[in-house]
Specification:
Blueprint (H helix, E strand, L loop, with lengths): L1 E14 L5 E8 L2 E4 L2 E10 L2 E9 L4 E7 L4 E8 L4
Antiparallel strand pairs: 1-2, 1-7, 2-3, 4-5, 5-6, 6-7
């Protein structure tokens, strides 16, 4: 079960080719998590900002990352309750 975190984080991502974005790793609580797989992705508008959501796993837990394309900020929206 996912639990809300809502913390800004640092993310390493590959942009392209074209308009695609693929997160590769993220830092959270002074620990680097290598993303093994993006399990699902979706997008929605919040006002005039496009928010890109990524459900990812590091092989141990599931996380939801959000990229705000207007502010160019990454947020860890939620994480497996066991790791929070």
């Amino acid at each position: 079960m996912l639990q809300r975190v809502q913390e800004q984080i640092r993310v390493g991502a590959v942009f392209g080719p074209g308009p695609s974005i693929h997160p590769v790793w993220f830092d959270w609580r002074q620990q680097k998590h290598a993303i093994e797989k993006v399990t699902y992705r979706w997008r929605h508008m919040a006002g005039n900002a496009l928010l890109l959501h990524f459900a990812v796993t590091d092989g141990t837990a599931l996380y939801e990352l959000i990229y705000n394309s207007r502010e160019q900020l990454w947020t860890l929206e939620a994480a497996d309750a066991e790791v929070v």
